[in-house]
Backbone:
């Protein structure tokens, strides 16, 4: 094989790899999930929260806490109308994790709080909801997997 042919093959392979990575980035809002996170301590709680904004207003981040853990993928500062994001956290040193992400709906509107408590025997989203007026609501969150690796999705309408 000549040097020129080898360079062409490597260039084609690199471009193919970039194409695959770009495709995953564009379509990958649901790719991250708690069951696929790297675990440093067996049994450590992990959480993947997929948030979807079905309103016609931008959501503005008001506050966020990964509870006893840390963000692997923190919430974005804004969530545009029609957009989704996956927020991911891990708690390698404790047996439980409670995440809160609160967005303001519009610049001065009510708030939407997304919550999940990841604890053995009681995975729940009990503190999820909207407050401050308006006709907004969060559909009953769908918990797709349980302790210790919780995946949950939320739809704000």
Residues:
């Amino acid at each position: 094989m000549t040097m020129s042919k080898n360079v062409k093959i490597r260039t084609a392979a690199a471009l193919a790899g970039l194409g695959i990575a770009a495709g995953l980035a564009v379509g990958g809002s649901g790719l991250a999930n708690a069951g696929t996170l790297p675990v440093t301590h067996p049994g450590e709680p992990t959480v993947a929260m997929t948030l979807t904004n079905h309103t016609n207003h931008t959501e503005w981040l008001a506050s966020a806490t990964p509870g006893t853990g840390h963000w692997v993928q923190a919430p974005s500062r804004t969530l545009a109308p029609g957009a989704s994001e996956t927020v991911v956290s891990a708690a390698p040193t404790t047996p439980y994790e409670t995440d809160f992400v609160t967005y303001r709906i519009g610049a001065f509107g009510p708030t939407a709080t997304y919550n999940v408590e990841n604890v053995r025997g009681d995975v729940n989203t009990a503190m999820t909801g909207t407050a401050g007026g308006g006709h907004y609501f969060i559909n009953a969150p769908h918990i797709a997997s349980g302790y210790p690796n919780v995946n949950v999705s939320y739809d704000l309408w």
Remarks:
- The chain is about 15% helix and 40% strand.
- Residues 7-31 have pLDDT under 50 and may be disordered.
- The first helix runs from residue 3 to 27.
- The beta strands are 46-53, 59-65, 70-73, 78-79, 84-90, 96-105, 111-119, 129-131, 142-145, 149-156.
